[in-house]
Design goal:
The protein has 137 residues and is an alpha+beta fold. The chain has two domains: 56 residues, 2,3-Dihydroxybiphenyl 1,2-Dioxygenase, domain 1, CATH 3.10.180; 61 residues, 2,3-Dihydroxybiphenyl 1,2-Dioxygenase, domain 1 (Roll), CATH 3.10.180. 23% of the residues lie in helices and 39% in strands. The two termini are 32 Å apart. This is VOC domain-containing protein. Pfam families: Glyoxalase (PF00903).
Length: 137
């Protein structure tokens, strides 16, 4: 039996609707996410009359809006032990093959490491320096 709190909260929030990521060039970033990470374009990059620009991509089932902006919003952080963490962790089925593929494509990838029993990891930086974790579990 659910508590009153659980019943009220579950009725309010059921999932993430989308993520918004700032980028310096929506055309370059959209191309990078599609070419290197295999994301799917939902809405092509477009520039509007007011000068703003955005695109919409899918990472798996999750919608991500890429917004062109001069504001830099970090999506990574430093753990208390000094190591880098990323807010977004993306899953792949073969970490070693994907890591080698991105190296060959000239993508900025960080060293591959295992954090077992959790997962196998590496981090990747997009054209704006946003750091994302890639993992296999």
């Amino acid at each position: 039996m659910r508590t009153e709190f659980e019943q009220n909260v579950i009725k309010r929030v059921i999932e993430f609707a989308c993520f918004n990521l700032t980028v310096s060039d929506v055309f370059v970033s959209t191309d990078w996410y599609v070419k290197h990470l295999g994301c799917r374009v939902v809405r092509e990059p477009q520039r509007f009359m007011d000068g703003s620009a955005n695109s919409q991509i899918k990472i798996g089932v999750q919608t991500v809006f890429l917004h062109e902006s001069s504001d830099r919003v970090k999506i990574h952080y430093t753990h208390s032990n000094g190591s880098m963490g990323s807010i977004f962790e993306l899953r792949t089925e073969n970490i070693d093959e994907f890591y080698e593929q991105l190296l060959k494509e000239g993508v900025h990838v960080f060293e591959r490491f295992d954090n077992l029993p959790c997962a196998k990891y590496f981090k990747v930086a997009d054209p704006d320096g946003n750091v994302l974790s890639i993992m296999e579990f």
